[in-house]
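Quick one: structure tokens for this chain, please?
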Amino acid sequence: MRLIDFFDRGAALYPQRTCMTDERRSLSFRDVRTLTHRIGSGLIGSALAPQSVAAVLSPNDVDAFACILGILRAGCAWMPLNARNSLEDNIWILGSNDCEWIFYHSSFSREIEEIRVAVPGIKGFVCVDSCDARDPFLGDWLVGFNEPAPYVPLGPHDIASIWPSGGTTGRSKGVMLTHLNFGTMIANFCSSMPSQEPPVHLVAAPMTHAAGCVAFPLLAMGATQVIIPRADPLEIMRCIQQHKVTTLFLPPTAIYSMLAHPRVREFDYSSLKYFIYAAAPMSAEKLKEALAIFGPVMAQTFGQAESPMLCTFLSPQEHRVIGDPLKEKRLLSCGRPTLLTQVEIMDDAGNLLPPGEKGEIVTRGNLVMKGYYKNADATEKASAFGWHHTGDVGYKDTDGYLYIVDRKRDMIISGGFNIYPSEIEQVLWSHPAVQDCAVVGAPDEKWGEAVTAVVELKPGLAVTPEELTAYCRERLGGMKTPKRIEVWDRLPRSPVGKVLKRDIREKYWVGRERRV
């Protein structure tokens, strides 16, 4: 099946049900299906061939989301652009992946002028929400395109999307995801998180990231997408109660902001069935707090752009371990492999490792990307020994639960010992004054690398570096206790909320030829 066919399934089952709603308007599945046909016809009528790359640059918005589906309807490859990216990053993504068309929100009109010059290969610009001085408004552009778009036959290995890789360690690469990749992701999702009734999904995180991935399988179930512009903690809590939201994805940093909000216990969360967290490790202590406030609904997935969203799954039921000393450690796990994806641990020589041994997490199956766009060397490197290499270090326990220890390149070598920052971060996260933290290696004449922590405190709370050092020493011992702890007003984060360790590390290594 093509990716758009999953949306059409939901539309056929629930044509009158609200498909998308935001602060401006609501559209039924029938309305959205008609709109996607008109957008698809417009793109085909503008001479965009199947597999041509088309992008959407917008905050979360009903019409922008419909444009994504319209791109797929035309048989084109959707290029997600994060509205929080820098202009430089988005220019790189558009140019390096040969984008030919862009739908944009008027809030990006100024950036579009620079994109127009920097990426001359883009043939068409359409503004989704208003009349622009230079480019047509979506409603005006669609005049004349009222007939259903012709069916565009596509194979399972044709490209549905070119997804920018995370880019937290360097220039983003174009991840070629096929219709089979998305179909596999949807099957993994539906088998892991079934629903008896059409869900209600709150799109609070960027629709260009995991929130968009979550939307595709839910649309096939006839889910209503409640779309808000940004992940504002209070607005999220209000929407869950008002719209009786059943399904929600947020990165851990956004969940921490909700937990720290003074009104977090004022709202009714009883409609929630799956509160999905992913994209970064989550503090075990804050996870326990989330379970106490939101109920037994927390669910974790592990994936990445190259193997999207659901390589593993830790169900709400598997979170019911608090108080059981033999099982409570599973709160640090990201679950077990999903139905259609193999996940193993591999050493540098390509050997698969037994339970308990640490190595690189590798995946295999129809969830794994076709490759990196025009980057055969990077594709070959990521596919060594017949498995996709995630760059994450982890291990499996004897029950098959996967534990992520760290990013492979984040490991600190101090005094000849391998130290994984995530263990130290778990301890710092557990301190009641700490909102978020990051641990990196800084240059040190004696140790080679010195364990260094930076922390962001909860609003209105205070703690000294000396107090945090003592707190860590009591729980970690001398070797793993940070040699330095700094309190920062705010940690640097990527557009999807991941803490940018490269930026933190750069502060300590600037001007040095060697970074180890």
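The CA atoms of residues 95 and 353 lie 40 Å apart.
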